[in-house]
Amino acid sequence: MNKKKFLVNSILLVATALIIRSMGLAFRVYMSNTIGAEGIGLYQLILTVYMFFASVTTAGISLFVTRLVTDYLARGENGIAKRCVTLCLIISVGISTAFGIMMFAFSNELGSVFLGDSRTVLSIKILAPSLPFMAVSACLRGYFLARRSVITTSFEQLLEQLAEIAVFAILVGKLAHMGLEYACCSIVIGTTGAEIISCIYSYILYRISISKIKGKAKRVPHFLNKFTSIALPVTGSSCLRSGLSAIENSLIPTGLRKNGSNYTNALSTYGTISGMVMPIITFPAIFIMPLSTLIIPEISQAKAQNKENSVKRISERLFRIGLLYSIPVMAIMIFLSNELGTVIYNSSDVGIYIAILAPVIPLMYLDSVVDGILKGLNEQVSYLIFNFIDSVIRVILTYFLLPIMGIKGFIIVIFVSESLNTSLSIWRFLKVVQLRLKIFEWIIRPLLCVALPCLLIIMLPFKQDSILGLIIKILLSCIGYILLLYITRRNNKRFSVQKLRIE
Question: What is the spatial distance between Cα 476 and Cα 154, in angstroms, rounded to a whole number?
Answer without folding.
Answer: 30
